[in-house]
Specification:
Layout (H helix, E strand, L loop, with lengths): L1 H13 L2 H19 L4 H9 L8 H26 L8 H12 L3 H36 L2 H19 L3 H15 L2 E2 L6 E2 L13 H24 L16 H21 L8 H17 L12 H24 L5 H12 L8 H4 L1 H30 L6 H20 L2 H19 L5 H23 L11 H34 L1
Antiparallel strand pairs: 1-2
Helix pairs in contact: 1-15, 2-3, 2-4, 2-15, 3-4, 3-13, 4-5, 4-6, 4-12, 4-15, 5-6, 5-12, 6-10, 6-12, 6-15, 7-8, 7-11, 7-18, 7-19, 8-18, 9-16, 9-17, 10-11, 10-12, 11-12, 16-17
Organism: Leucobacter insecticola
Keywords: Membrane, Transmembrane, Transmembrane helix
Protein name: Tripartite tricarboxylate transporter permease
């Protein structure tokens, strides 16, 4: 109960006019930057970090918290409306969210994302307050072999679930690996697929890949559709309220809880941020949609496909803050920026932080809860306002998307060549859409490919080349066993669906 007493003391510090004002300002600024494609929550913290230097430490950390979660709330807005997520953590939300927007339910999708982010973050922050010691123990379990097994699980599971054809899923996975291999090998220092160009030594940024595949690929696909249709499409309509009705809650609430369950463990271990749990949550919802024969999933957009990834992303962010405070380990890019903010004030997160700086830490923890409430109040009513962007005629809207996307790409390193790379990847995204090759495996391979390669080589180096080291502990064995069962069931389902399709064609 010591944690509860300390948390209540933190609430008394936060509930002052000045600190509440800092929370509101941070929430608005974080959301505004998070909405911009190519920037996202990590950039929100980075850009707004100097704003807090003139504040006292308590006010600064409270503002950090609202900027942190505000950026996460904003990440999914552009993804849902424009198919251009503000950060890679919102990619999974984009798939069904943008379909909902195109079918006239943009406000509902934005409202679901806001509620999902609130629920996921609230549950995760509650667990962080009361179960920080267990988070420490969870992080200690994972070594190189466990990280590789987790990445392999994500690769195969997502490719098998999100693709109608396993072959197409594997092809997409290979494309993602090819993009991830560009640059300097981090272990040997050798060049790989750089064609001798120094521009590619640092690899291809995930922002460039995301913007190219999702935003520019979608723009080219829509442009070709309009061209083949012989005219300019009418604007996408946007009807309805962002508030969920009773039947929406019946669909969304289990997805919120499933997504949160995926996200909570991942925040404590450095496996590439919230991308893995958001994709796994999305894949689970798609598999469940197939079982119940949901006609909206993958077509008009299903509310569960927004609810689960968004809850997973924010719950991961909540436990990531717990891992940062308790262990001093940043498990995501945004958490790394938060670590820099702590160090700016002479604080080193870790096991002794709660003892040495409890007067600062507990107000920060309390501000997580209040900040989430403020963000929900800010984002939910304005969802319908954001949705009005879809009333812009399609040719003007997608021209604006192209401009914003290219500005986001240029902002990464201020290089024109990055814009050409993004355009090339956009053409690749267009071709993938034409031939029904899924985009999700490309993105997950590009994000987790370097991590999987590094951990595999590290495991083999430690074991002096013995592959048995990959299955020498219980965690990898369990993950591989689950993966085997998962893939077997998926293959059987695909074969059954193919046989059923053939029978329908014969009877027709």
């Amino acid at each position: 109960m010591d944690q509860l007493a300390s948390l209540l003391e933190g609430f008394t510090v936060v509930f002052t006019p000045a600190n509440l004002l800092f929370l509101v300002i941070g929430a608005v600024l974080g959301t505004a930057v998070g909405v911009l494609p190519g920037l996202g929550s990590a950039m929100a913290v980075a850009l707004l970090l100097p704003v807090t230097f003139s504040l006292d430490p308590t006010g600064a950390f409270i503002m950090f918290a609202s900027i942190y979660f505000g950026g996460l709330f904003g990440d999914s807005t552009a993804g849902i409306l424009l198919n251009t997520p503000g950060n890679s953590s919102a990619i999974a939300t984009t798939f069904e969210g943008h379909r909902m927007a195109k079918s006239g339910r943009a406000a509902k999708a934005l409202g679901t994302a806001a509620i999902g982010a609130f629920i996921g973050g609230l549950i995760a922050c509650t667990l962080v307050v009361f179960f920080s010691p267990y988070i420490v123990e969870l992080a200690k379990v994972f070594g190189p072999a466990e990280y590789f097994a987790l990445a392999a699980f994500a690769f195969v599971a997502i490719s098998a679930v999100v693709a109608d054809s396993i072959v197409r899923g594997i092809v997409a996975l290979g494309i993602g690996f090819a993009l991830a291999l560009v640059g300097i090998d981090g272990i040997s220092g050798a060049e790989r697929f750089t064609f001798g160009s120094p521009v590619l030594f640092d690899g291809i940024s995930i922002i460039i890949i995301t913007v190219g595949l999702l935003a520019l690929g979608e723009v080219l696909h829509v442009a070709s559709y309009i061209k083949r249709g012989g005219g300019v499409e009418v604007p996408m309509h946007s009807d309805g309220s962002p508030f969920l009705r009773r039947k929406d809650w019946r669909k969304a609430l289990p997805a919120f809880l499933r997504g949160t369950a995926f996200g909570i463990p991942f925040g404590a271990i450095p496996v590439g941020g919230s991308e893995v749990p958001t994709f796994l949550a999305y894949g689970t919802e798609k598999r469940l949609a197939r079982r119940r024969n949901d006609p909206d999933f993958g077509t008009r957009g299903a509310i569960q496909g927004v609810a689960a990834p968004e809850a997973a992303g924010n719950s991961t962010a909540g436990t990531a803050m717990g891992a940062l405070l308790a262990l001093g380990i940043p498990t995501s890019a945004t958490a790394a920026m938060m670590l820099a903010a702590f160090q700016q004030y002479g604080m080193q997160p870790g096991p002794l932080l709660f003892e040495r700086s409890g007067d600062l830490v507990w107000p920060l923890m309390a501000s997580f809860f209040i900040g989430l409430v403020i963000l929900l109040i800010i984002n939910l009513p304005f969802a319908a306002v954001w949705a009005k962007l879809l009333l812009i005629p399609r040719h003007y809207l997608y021209a604006s998307i192209t401009l914003i996307a290219m500005l986001g790409v240029y902002a990464v390193a201020s290089r024109v060549v990055d814009m050409w790379i993004a355009l090339g990847i956009g053409v690749l995204g267009f071709v993938m859409r034409r031939y029904a090759i899924p985009v999700a495996p490309v993105l997950i391979a590009a994000i987790l490919g370097p991590l999987a390669e590094t951990q595999l080589r590290r495991t083999l180096a430690i074991s002096e080349g013995d592959p048995a080291a990959l299955v020498s502990t219980p965690v990898p064995i369990v993950l591989y066993a689950i993966l085997f069962v998962f893939v077997t069931v998926s293959v059987v389902q695909h074969l059954r669906n193919r046989a059923a399709t053939r029978r329908e064609r014969v009877t027709a």
